[in-house]
DNA sequence: ACCTAGATTCACT
DNA sequence: GTGAATCTAGGTT
């Protein structure tokens, strides 16, 4: 079954494991870059998730999270980084998947140009800010429809094994780091290294022969 | 108007 | 592993 907007009509928490392995493309004058998503983090804004930008209701900044699913929520952070989320769930139910890591599978020369400091291709989109640069996402792209040009979101090959663990970067406030809403493909080298969590656990039954899961 | 925290990255050691 | 660089939104004066 194809990945389409209706696929995204549920919570990011449930969609996270499902969307790993999906392909996101962005076309500019330079050409098309496609990234296979290997790491995603779910955020919801219904008041139970203090780590979410939408925790305290709709603002000008987070309005995209309250819109139709399948759009891009892009925001600026740490004074220098843009991060991109795939908006999930029906409108008015803020829910999104932060794209934290991926593998460039098309347009690698374009991505290398944009990420000139990357030491290897592995690092081109390893980390949320890096992924945004490699894909060519800017703050102005906030609100863009991911199912229309210049973007494209489609299904990729299902990963064999998916793990989950506490999210990265959320302050421990409100115990928000207790939600195991970070999802990644087991063993994939393009999963972000930042603040890796010592303890991870199996998220989806898709994983076979679960030995002790290895953090990314 | 001012202040602070933040869904981070890079260059070093 | 650590520190610096950087800017925007949101809350507070």
Automatic annotation (TrEMBL):
Molecular function via GO: alkylbase DNA N-glycosylase activity; DNA binding
Region (Disordered) location: 193-216
Main enzyme class: hydrolase
EC assignment: 3.2.2.-
UniProt key word DNA repair: yes
Protein's GO biological process: base-excision repair
Pfam families: Pur_DNA_glyco (PF02245)
Keywords assigned by UniProt, alphabetized: DNA damage, DNA repair, Hydrolase
Similarity comment: family membership: Belongs to the DNA glycosylase MPG family.
HAMAP family: 3MGH
The name this protein goes by in its record: Putative 3-methyladenine DNA glycosylase
Annotated organism of origin: Paramicrobacterium agarici
């Amino acid at each position: 079954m194809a990945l389409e907007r209706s696929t995204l009509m549920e919570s990011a928490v449930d969609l996270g494991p499902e969307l790993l392995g999906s392909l996101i493309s962005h076309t500019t004058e330079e050409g098309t870059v496609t990234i296979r998503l290997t790491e995603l983090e779910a955020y919801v804004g219904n008041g139970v998730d203090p780590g979410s930008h939408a925790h305290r209701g709709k603002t000008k900044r987070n309005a995209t999270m309250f819109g139709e699913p399948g759009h891009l929520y892009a925001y600026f952070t740490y004074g220098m980084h843009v991060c991109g989320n795939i908006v999930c769930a029906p409108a008015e139910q803020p829910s999104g998947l932060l794209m934290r890591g991926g593998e460039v599978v098309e347009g690698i020369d374009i991505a290398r140009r944009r990420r000139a400091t990357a030491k290897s291709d592995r690092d081109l989109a390893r980390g949320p800010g890096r992924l945004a640069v490699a894909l060519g996402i800017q703050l102005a792209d906030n609100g863009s429809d991911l199912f229309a040009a210049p973007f494209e979101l489609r299904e990729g090959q299902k990963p064999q094994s998916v793990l989950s663990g506490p999210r990265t970067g959320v302050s421990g406030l409100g115990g928000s780091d207790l939600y195991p809403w970070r999802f990644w493909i087991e063993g994939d080298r393009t999963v972000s290294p930042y603040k890796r969590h010592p303890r991870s656990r199996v998220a989806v039954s898709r994983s076979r022969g679960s030995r002790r899961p290895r953090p990314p």
